[in-house]
Write a structure and sequence with these properties.
Number of strands: 34
Strand content: 25-35%
Distance between the termini: 30 Å
Number of domains: 2
Number of helices: 5
Radius of gyration: 24 Å
Shape: globular
Structural class: mainly beta
């Protein structure tokens, strides 16, 4: 796929502009990729390459929230699974969110870890549930590991204009921590698994950041009956859902002179190749824990250095069934779920599997091809009655005239005030002992500027809030210094894709440590604001 010309829309946009007689509506739902089950002993993490592209041409406002294709990784509990609800996982991925402040049509990436029943979530170093640092709620849940990648609190930036290239990522546990019999002084354990994000992109490869065990176990200090049930100590369930979750795409509805209901949606795009297909997910892979863990643990114990290459022979590529499904609906706000009409996705798309492990949608002729390497889905739908079934939205035919009320609706980016900056505290762990160098700034492609400083790894605020003693943090420091010395950013860690091109990170998030701070120091973002 090729790169789109950059298109910047400053932060959130105001509501769309309806024409007289048109009623505001929305399109939402899931697209799913069924896979065959794999053995449970592949519980040591996952990796895959997913397409990154601009779903909409412009940011449509703060109601817009959609991911691109991603997954949900839960701990495998088996017979230990309690009857109570204990939702906790690693999800996230590429997309756009309601709290995005510096939005462009190009997606960003978040880590998206969820602690017990959404009590907190962590989207990356310094990013979590809300922005009130007096209630961190996950903002200390992820530690910075890479000395070469900045993590903006608004999400990790891709190069502007990314259009259909593969973004490779995955999570594997690293033995950076030690098991603890007590958590914050309470008789519940914390495990030693630090689930680490690895990237495979055109301009950066390797580990970036990891979830601290305390992120998952902190909640068990108040609910001790759930001790030992989370990803800090449990293997992952390798049989994960693979879906694209869309919560809001703007639309309008109106009736014509015959009383028929019509809808018009914002132009919604997918990358398209010369054969009229959209390759969207490539090589969904799950690993055994010894694909990386054993060599690294032996290295940390005084053995020979591990090169960081994640052994593909200790993995399985999930077989795809060749099927795909959609639950996309189109409805006015407040419509009860049972009354929301489905979009007849099968009228213009069919699933296809290429080379045995690449999922794509193949489009009907009603899906028009833009001149920018993107397919534009049907924008005009008509509600059609069906015998004994709920009515359904089907793409309008040549004889279905668009009602006058829908001809002039505008999906445009209105004026928007300057977004508020992200600002971290200036005292406590942020200042004591504080950064060794900085502040420095970097201007990102989303129109924001990040301010950052270089902290000794074990002194970064997340580590100081992770229920670790000084000795435990120093032990992690020594292990990370080994990684910094030997795991360079130009080697292959995750298995590479068999075809296609890799997406690139925004060049501005790639940094070089100052002289003398190359080993054992990491960049920590303390502010992100509009230019």
């Amino acid at each position: 796929m090729h790169r789109l010309a950059p298109l910047f829309v400053a932060a959130q946009l105001a509501a769309q502009q309806p024409a007289a007689g048109a009623q505001e509506a929305e399109m939402n739902g899931y697209l799913g990729v069924p896979q065959q089950q794999v053995p449970l002993d592949f519980g040591g993490g996952f990796a895959m390459h997913v397409a990154a592209w601009p779903l909409l041409a412009a940011w449509p406002g703060d109601r817009f929230q959609t991911g691109l294709f991603g997954t949900w990784m839960f701990a495998h509990l088996g017979p230990d699974k309690p009857a109570a609800k204990i939702y906790s996982d690693i999800e996230g991925g590429l997309g756009w969110w309601r709290d995005t402040r510096f939005a462009t049509p190009t997606p960003k990436f978040i880590m998206g870890g969820v602690a017990l029943e959404f009590s907190q979530w962590a989207n990356g170093p310094g990013a979590g549930k809300g922005r009130d640092w007096t209630k961190p709620q996950g903002k200390y849940g992820v530690a910075q590991l890479s000395p070469w990648v900045l993590w903006p609190p608004d999400g990790l930036n891709l190069a502007q204009g990314t259009n259909g290239d593969w973004f490779g990522y995955g999570y594997l546990p690293l033995p950076l921590a030690e098991r603890k019999a007590k958590t914050a002084g309470v008789d519940v354990p914390s495990g030693d698994q630090c689930w680490t994000l690895f990237l495979d992109t055109a301009n950066f490869k390797g580990p970036v950041a990891f979830f601290l065990p305390y992120f998952f176990t902190e909640a068990t200090t108040k609910k001790t009956e759930f001790g030992g049930l989370f990803l800090d100590s449990r293997p992952a369930d390798p049989n994960r859902a693979l879906q694209m979750e869309t919560q809001y795409v703007p639309a309008f509805v109106a009736t014509d002179g015959d009383g028929r209901l019509h809808a018009r949606t914002a132009p919604t795009r997918f990358p398209i190749d010369a054969q009229g297909r959209s390759p969207l997910v490539h090589a969904i892979r799950s690993f055994r824990k010894d694909a990386l863990w054993d060599d690294v643990a032996a290295w940390f114990g005084g053995g020979k250095s591990a090169d960081g290459r994640i052994d593909p022979a200790r993995s399985v590529v999930h077989p795809l069934t060749g099927k795909g499904w959609s639950t996309w609906r189109l409805h006015t706000p407040g419509t009860p779920k049972d009354d929301r009409m489905a979009i007849d996705w099968n009228a213009f798309a069919r699933p296809e599997v290429l080379d045995g492990h690449t999922f794509c949608w193949t489009w009907d002729a009603s899906v028009r091809r833009g001149g920018d390497g993107l397919a534009v889905l049907p924008e005009h739908f008509v509600a059609v009655a069906r015998d004994g079934k709920k009515p359904m939205w089907r793409p309008a035919g040549a004889d279905d005239a668009l009602p006058p009320a829908l001809r002039d609706v505008a999906f445009v980016p209105p004026k928007q005030k300057q977004p508020e900056p992200y600002v971290t505290p200036t005292d406590g762990a942020w200042a004591n002992p504080g950064p060794k160098a900085g502040p420095f700034t970097a201007a990102l492609g989303d129109g924001s500027v990040v301010t950052y400083g270089w902290y000794r790894f074990c002194d970064q605020p997340a580590l100081q809030h992770a229920d670790l003693t000084v000795e435990e943090r120093e032990s992690m420091q020594q292990r990370v210094e080994l990684l910094h010395r030997h795991w360079t950013k130009d080697r292959q860690y995750l298995p590479p894709p068999a075809s296609g091109q890799l997406a690139a990170l925004d060049a501005a998030v790639l940094v070089t440590p100052p002289p003398g701070l190359e080993i054992g120091y990491v960049p920590i973002v303390t502010r992100q604001a509009a230019k």
